[in-house]
UniProtKB/TrEMBL annotation:
InterPro entries (alphabetical): ADH-like_C, ADH-like_N, ER, GroES-like_sf, NAD(P)-bd_dom_sf, Quinone_OxRdtase_PIG3
Record organism: Kalmanozyma brasiliensis (strain GHG001) (Yeast)
GO MF term list: NADPH binding; oxidoreductase activity, acting on NAD(P)H
Occurrences of domain Enoyl reductase (ER) (ranges): 19-348
Pfam families membership: ADH_N (PF08240), ADH_zinc_N (PF00107)
Keyword set, alphabetical order: NADP, Oxidoreductase
CDD domains in alphabetical order: p53_inducible_oxidoreductase (cd05276)
Entry protein name: Enoyl reductase (ER) domain-containing protein
Length: 353
């Protein structure tokens, strides 16, 4: 089934394929052609991610199945479908979802299993803020780490988009204590307001020592069962020290560097530690689709919408929107993220399309 679809659409493009934020412009591109088990969505809003900036600069190698148009998350309504198999979407349904690219546009085509129905409790902007951050956090905490109720978690870069999502999902899935690191007392306070139990300022103290003191961990005993890390080399030794026996660490980025000068790896053996790295966009469409469906099965969205309170009544879920821009102001949105001004999500609305 389908509705009247134009052959051309508006889209955010990059002059000469790569360049600074001033190279971004609103141009035109062919509307994607559907293949079997795909849907076409008319976009209302999309999220801005740091990978978009890297792609714009020509520093992010695209997966072979990705379109050149930026953007990996969106909200909108379905305007066409083709030979759907398992999930029977209908034209007009309001949805949001994950994509391998192409969300900086008026229309996007995606596999039917990579979208979710937009609940009435969420508006277009809130829905567009969920897919990349929350599915990445869900993947780290549940799919890879297998976080269990009562286990303690350490989330580095707690005030980042994925960090905030991880705090809320860890709380929603019943984590024991949730610890974070951040670069200012303001960010630590914010993280604690949305569900973290304690934060450590990595700029003013040795976070690993402070965590051990706070939890009373002696020697290599460790304080947490799961660590979600974005920093890499500078935190590696502290992470090994902080993990309990049978602890798991997921590495999602190397913001502080990827080369470790000196480390004692004996703890990997003696504490039976498991370390795994992951990137989401480079995964196959099938993997990402399964991740979305896993999020559905484990009621991740319901947990997020309705929140999760601990015994002290602390709110566990809060969609954090930093700022909303029109796509006509896409340069300013990229500049805002590049200046590291955001705490929470930057969302772009597709105005006048």
């Amino acid at each position: 089934m389908s509705t009247e679809i134009p052959s051309e659409m508006k889209a955010i493009l990059v002059k000469d394929s790569k360049g600074p934020s001033s190279s971004l412009y609103l141009g035109s591109s062919p509307v994607p052609t559907l293949e079997d088990d795909e849907v076409l969505v008319k976009i209302k809003a999309f999220g801005l991610n740091r990978m978009d900036i890297m792609q714009r600069e020509g520093q992010y190698p695209l997966p072979p199945h990705a379109p050149t148009i930026m953007g990996v998350e969106f909200s909108g309504h379905i305007v066409s479908t083709k030979n759907l198999k398992d999930v029977q979407w209908k034209v007009g349904q309001e949805v949001f979802g994950l994509a391998v690219g192409g969300a900086y546009a008026e229309y996007i085509k995606v596999p039917a299993r990579m979208i979710l129905e937009k609940p009435s409790e969420l508006d277009w902007i809130q829905a567009a803020a969920i897919p990349e951050n929350y599915l990445t956090a869900f993947q780290a905490l549940r799919t890879i780490s297998g976080l269990q109720p009562g286990e303690n978690v350490l989330i580095h870069a707690g005030a980042s988009g994925v960090g905030l999502a991880a705090i809320q999902l860890a709380r929603a899935f019943g984590a024991g204590k949730i610890y974070i690191t951040a670069g200012s007392e303001e960010k630590i306070q914010f993280c604690q307001e949305i569900g973290a139990d304690k934060g450590f300022n990595y700029k003013t103290s040795d976070w690993a020592e402070e965590l051990a003191k706070h939890t009373g961990a002696k020697g290599p005993a460790g304080s947490v069962d799961v660590i979600v890390d974005f920093i890499g080399a500078p935190y590696f030794n502290g992470n090994l020290q902080s993990l309990k026996r049978d602890g798991r660490m997921v590495m999602l980025a190397f913001m502080g560097g990827a080369k470790i000068k000196e480390t004692v790896i004996a703890q990997l053996l003696f504490k039976r530690l498991r370390i795994e790295g992951s990137t989401l966009r480079s995964r196959t469409v099938e993997y990402q689709s399964d991740l979305v469906q896993g999020f559905v099965r484990e009621k991740g969205l319901e947990r997020l919408i309705h929140g999760a309170r601990d015994g002290e009544g602390k709110e566990g879920s809060k969609l954090v929107i930093h700022k909303v821009y029109s796509w006509k102001d896409i340069k300013e949105a990229h500049d805002e993220m590049e200046a590291n001004k955001n705490v929470g999500k930057i969302i772009i609305t597709v105005d006048g399309a």
